[in-house]
Amino acid sequence: MAKELKQLTKRSENYSQWFNDLVTKADLAEQSAVRGCMVIKPYGYAIWEKMQHQLDVMFKETGAQNAYFPMLIPKSFFSREAEHVEGFAKECAVVTHYRLRTNEDKTGIEVDPAAKLEEELIIRPTSETIIWNTYKNWIQSYRDLPLMCNQWCNVMRWEMRTRPFLRTSEFLWQEGHTAHATKEEAEEEAKKMLHVYADFAEKWMAVPVVQGVKSETERFAGALNTYTIEAMMQDGKALQSGTSHFLGQNFAKAFDVTFLNKENKPEYVWATSWGVSTRLIGALIMTHSDDNGLVLPPKLAPIQVVIVPITKNAEQLQAISEKLAPVISQLRAAGISVKYDDADNKRPGFKFADYELKGVPVRLVMGGRDLEENTIEIMRRDTLEKETRSFDGIVEYVEQLLEDIQANIYKKALDFRNAHIYECDNYEEFKERIKDGGFFLCHWDGTAETEAKIKEETQATIRCVPFMFEQTPGVDMVSGKPATQRVLIARSY
Amino acid sequence: MAKELKQLTKRSENYSQWFNDLVTKADLAEQSAVRGCMVIKPYGYAIWEKMQHQLDVMFKETGAQNAYFPMLIPKSFFSREAEHVEGFAKECAVVTHYRLRTNEDKTGIEVDPAAKLEEELIIRPTSETIIWNTYKNWIQSYRDLPLMCNQWCNVMRWEMRTRPFLRTSEFLWQEGHTAHATKEEAEEEAKKMLHVYADFAEKWMAVPVVQGVKSETERFAGALNTYTIEAMMQDGKALQSGTSHFLGQNFAKAFDVTFLNKENKPEYVWATSWGVSTRLIGALIMTHSDDNGLVLPPKLAPIQVVIVPITKNAEQLQAISEKLAPVISQLRAAGISVKYDDADNKRPGFKFADYELKGVPVRLVMGGRDLEENTIEIMRRDTLEKETRSFDGIVEYVEQLLEDIQANIYKKALDFRNAHIYECDNYEEFKERIKDGGFFLCHWDGTAETEAKIKEETQATIRCVPFMFEQTPGVDMVSGKPATQRVLIARSY
C-alpha cells in the first residue's frame, strides 16, 4: 500500500483532527462507502485480535462460555421491554424485504415488493431480547443457573454523527448475558465483570479508569443499574470504555423466564449484561499517542519489536542478518512479535518514521559500525529515547524494556489523569474550568433536573458515582440542596 | 440446562432425522425464533472456536491478514458485476429503513416511513463487492500486491429450506479476498487455499475430501473457476465443505481496480476469494457420529478426556480425587482439555450416556476397586472399547490413545469413502445405483445440457472434476458423445 508519511495534525492545534489523521495514517481504519460504517484495516484489526484474545481468556476464567445468537431480531421482541425499545427504536436498521429483482427497464435492480416480510426484522443493536427469548427454553430449575454466555459479534446502531472507533453505525463488540437465581448473585456478577474490564484496561491497555455507577438518566435502556469504567483522554474528556448492567428481572418478566427454586416454587430469573467494543481502540489511541503517531502498550502491540539493518552492501547485510538471527529466534521463543525489516526499497529514515507512526514499542538498529563494535542502537517509542549499547544480553534487555514501557505509559496516563481530577464546589467556577477539560468531583443532589441543567449549560454530563473516592455529604453546587455524595462530571466522547 | 437423554433416531431408520436429533440433543445448536437462523449453543460454538483457531493459524502462515469490512452493502455495488448480482439477488435481506416509531394507537412500534434510506442496503451474502470497492484505494502499484485479507464474520442468504449447520439463513464463516498482479499468481493462490482447506479437513476434522474444480454451472457467481473440497457423508451424499474461487479480473473491472506494473502501465488486478463456514460442523457430525451420539476428532473436541470417579462415600471420593489430581495436571500441561466430573447429582450411567452423546473421545473411570488395585478403566468413544489397565503410565497412554483415535476415525471415514466411489459407464445402471448414494466417476461430454438432464432425472449433480484420479478419455454415459474426462457425480446436501 503506497503511502506518504505526511505530518500529522498536532494535538495542540486540533486534537480531534489529530485523532482522525492518526487513525487513517497509521492504517488502523478508514471510512467505507456505507454511511457511518468503517473498514478496520489489518493493522487496526490486529490490535482488536489481541484485545479479544486476552478478554476471552478473562471471561472464561469467570465461567462464561461463548455462543452465537441470531443477528436479526423480530420487531415484536423489541417492544416487550418498554424502556429497552424506547432506548433503541430511534436508531435501528430495519430489514423489510428478502429479495431483489431486475427492474422493468432492465437497467438495474430494485426491491421485490412481493418479498416483503410479514414482520420486520431489526439488526441487533444489542441482544438482550433475542437471548432472553432463547434462555426461556434453557432454564427450568435452579440447577440450570447461573447461565453465563458471551458472544463476539457485530451490532448496528444508526448513529447520526460517527467517528472511527469512537462511534460507528456498525461496530464489533462482545456482549455477555448472564442469568442468576438471586438478586445478590446478579449484582455481584455485574460488579465482577466491571472489575474484569477495569483490570483489562489498566493492565493490558495501560489506561487508568474510574469505576462507578451511572445515574438513572445515563443507564442502559432496561437496566436497574449500569456500572461503567471511564477513562480520561489527553484533552481531558471522558471516554466511557465499558459497561456492565444489572438488569434485575426486567427481561425475565418481558420474556417470561422463570425457574423452580429449591423449594420447587417458580421465580423470575435475575439478569446481567456487559460489553466492550472496538471503541477500546479509540481509548488506546487517545490515551497514549503523540504528535509522531501511535504509542501502543507492548502487551497489545501487533509488532512489539522492529529490527532494521543499515548496510552498504549485500555482504554486510548478510553479516548483520546472521548476527541478528539468533536474537530474533530467542525473542520470538519468548513470545515477542518481531519484525525484521531488511527491505531495500525504502530508506531507513522512512522506515523509522513509519514504525513511529505505527507505535512499535521498541526499535533496534544495527549498522556496519555496530557490527564491528558489537553494539546495537535501541529506541523506545514511548519516550523516543535512543541509546547504543552492547549487543550482549540484548534479549533480556528488550524483554525488560517492554515491561518498562508498559509500566511507564500506564504511570504517565495515571499521573495525567490524577493531575486533572478536581474537587469543585462552585458552579460558576465549574462552568469556566470545564472548558479546559478534566474530571470534576462535585456534590449532586441526585435529581434529574440538576443533571439536565448541567448538561445543557456546560455540555458536561455525570459520568458516574465513582467507587474510588471517599464520599462525604455536602451541598449541590447547582441547586444548593443537600447532597449525599460527589459525582464525576466531565465532557465526554 | 435440565435435559433428558432420550434415544436418538437410528441412522438406518432416518439419517436426516438422526442428524437433527443429534444437533439438538448434543447441545450443538437449536432453531431460533427467526426463520432459518439458528442459535449456536456453547458446546457447538466451542467446536467452531477450535476450528477457527487452527484455520486462522494456517491462513496467517500463507501471509493473509485479518481485517473487517462493513456488513451492509449498497444495492448499487451489487449490480456492478452482472453474474454476481444474478447469483445473490434472489436471496438477500434488504435494509430499507433506519428507525422505528410508536404506532398511532400506542399499542406497539412500526417502521417510521420518514426514515427511509435513499439507497437500500443489503446484508452481505458475501463481501466481494464491498471489499473490491475498498481495495480500489489500497492498490496503486505492483508494490502493493499481493494483498491478502481475510475476515471472520456473519453472512446472510435468505434460503427457503434450512437445516442447522448445513444451510441456514445466517451463518458464520471466513472469507479470504486476495489481489494479485498476474493471472498465474491468482490461480496459484486459489489452488493453494483449496489445499489448505483439504489439509484442515483431513488432518484436523479427520474428514477425507475430494479436491476438484466445479463445472461452469456450479461456479460461484462471478468466478472464472471454483475449486471445491467434497466430503462423503455416511449416507453416501456429498457435502461441499469449502470453496476457493479464481475470480479473474471480473471484480477489478467492476470496481475499476488497476495497478501500475513494473513498466509503469496500468493493468487490472487479478482476484481470488475463498471461504469455509459453520457448515464444517455439519460435515464433522455426519462423517463420524453414530447411533449413540457424536464422535469428535480429538483435535477439535472441546473436552478431550472426561474423568468420572465412582465412589461410595466422601472419604473414598477424596482418596480417588487425590490420586487423580497429578494425572489431571499432567494431561492439562500437555495441552489436553480434561473435565473431572465428580458432581454427585447425576448417576454414573447418566454421565456416561451424556459424554457419549457429546462425543468426548476418551473416558476414564476410577472406582473403589481401581483405587485398591492401582487400575483405571478407559473407554474410547470411536469404537466404544473399554479396558481396565494399570494406573501407571496413564498420561502417556491417553496421549497416544488420542492420536490413535484421530488416525482411526480418519481411516474409517476414508475406507468408507473409498468403498463408495464407483466408476460407472452406463446411465441406466447409474440411475439405479445413485439411489443408494455414493460418488460416481462418469465420463461427461462437458455440456450444460447433459449436466441438467442428470440433475433433473436423478437429483444428482456434478460435484467436481476431481484432481485425484487419472483421467482417461471415453464416452459420455448420457449423450454418447466423446468425453475427455470423468467427473464426480453425487447427490448432495
From TrEMBL, chains A, B:
Name used for this protein in its record: Proline--tRNA ligase
InterPro entries, A to Z: aa-tRNA-synt_IIb, aa-tRNA-synth_II, aa-tRNA-synth_II/BPL/LPL, Anticodon-bd, Anticodon-bd_dom_sf, Pro-tRNA-ligase_IIa_arc-type, Pro-tRNA_ligase_II_C, Pro-tRNA_synth_II
Annotated function: Catalyzes the attachment of proline to tRNA(Pro) in a two-step reaction: proline is first activated by ATP to form Pro-AMP and then transferred to the acceptor end of tRNA(Pro).
Aminoacyl-transfer RNA synthetases class-II family profile domain location: 4-297
Entry GO CC: aminoacyl-tRNA synthetase multienzyme complex; cytoplasm
Catalyses which reaction(s): tRNA(Pro) + L-proline + ATP = L-prolyl-tRNA(Pro) + AMP + diphosphate
Quaternary structure, from the entry: Homodimer.
HAMAP family named in the record: Pro_tRNA_synth_type3
Enzyme class, first EC level, given as a word: ligase
Similarity remark: Belongs to the class-II aminoacyl-tRNA synthetase family. ProS type 3 subfamily.
Domain remark in the UniProt entry: Consists of three domains: the N-terminal catalytic domain, the anticodon-binding domain and the C-terminal extension.
CDD domains hit by this protein: ProRS_anticodon_zinc (cd00862), ProRS_core_arch_euk (cd00778)
This protein's UniProt keywords: Aminoacyl-tRNA synthetase, ATP-binding, Cytoplasm, Ligase, Nucleotide-binding, Protein biosynthesis
Top-rank taxon: Bacteria
Pfam families according to UniProt: HGTP_anticodon, ProRS-C_1, tRNA-synt_2b
GO biological process, one term: prolyl-tRNA aminoacylation
Location of the protein in the cell: Cytoplasm
PANTHER family, per the entry: BIFUNCTIONAL GLUTAMATE_PROLINE--TRNA LIGASE, PROLYL-TRNA SYNTHETASE
Annotated SUPFAM superfamilies: C-terminal domain of ProRS, Class II aaRS ABD-related, Class II aaRS and biotin synthetases
GO function terms (MF aspect): ATP binding; proline-tRNA ligase activity
Enzyme Commission numbers on file: 6.1.1.15
